[in-house]
Amino acid sequence: MSHWLRWLSGLSVVPLVLTSTLQAAEPSLETIEPPPVPIATEVLVRVVAHGAMVIGDEVGGARVTIAEAATGRLLASGLQQGEAGDQNQIMRTPRLMEEPRFSSRPSASFRTTLHLDRPTLVEIAAQGPLGHPAAMQRASKTVLLIPGQDLTNDGIVLHLYGFIVQIEQPLPGESLIAKDDVILTASVRTLSGSLVRPHGDWDSRKVTIYGQVLIGDRVVERIQMFYSGTKSRFEAPFFVPTSTEAPNGVTLRVVAADGAGGNFGMGEANYPVLSERLKPRVKN
Prior knowledge:
- Helices cover 10% and strands 42% of the residues.
- By secondary structure, the chain is mainly beta.
- The protein has two domains: 122 residues, Sandwich (Immunoglobulin-like); 112 residues, Immunoglobulin-like.
- The strands form five sheets. It has a four-stranded antiparallel β-sheet with strand order 3-2-5-6, with no helix packed on it. A four-stranded antiparallel β-sheet has the order 8-10-14-13, with no helix packed on it.
């Protein structure tokens, strides 16, 4: 009988032991860490024309967005505003790798302060130049931001590739007379607005610049364009097709291509074609 009593008394110890173990496993309120406090972190972004200057107010600036890479949640957005920068400092001054290139003198940038509570991978994107929709380009990159580690000096630099190509003459939409010889004139600039011309920092001798006459989608003439001697303008004559050949008018296209530098640009405009020049009315 004493044997069974000892066995039963042993069973009664088990729940007591389990209860004691469970109570010990419960965390104390004093050991729970408070949530991390967000830390102000300054982020500077600079959008530049590849191989040229900063995209500033002269060409309409650039739009910048910063979003959390994992979720797409927008953290900041705004416009890059300011000057294109000092040409001597950016284009002609030798410097070491760690030395700032675009911020040694005032130049356009986008600044924001993010409040980060943990290391955050973000996507920074830029689009511009906003003043020239036909030439706008977009670029982005992912960057790991660390709370309290400010990005200053040049900041995160985004390069936009291309040229601003604008047809100056004939004026877009102007009627052309069939069989006329017409001078096609276009300007070519970098995306930052810098002039492309012979022997300059952006040497047109290294850029292929040509025009095309199109009827519909068909190229009927290609014309080599040459520097006109004025700023960044290039020109060449072309022959206007007949109104029968081009019942819906013609399209003029100018292309600037720098394969070595990776910059390409194009401008287009449409023109109706008249069969003959209208004679002025005779006053009575």
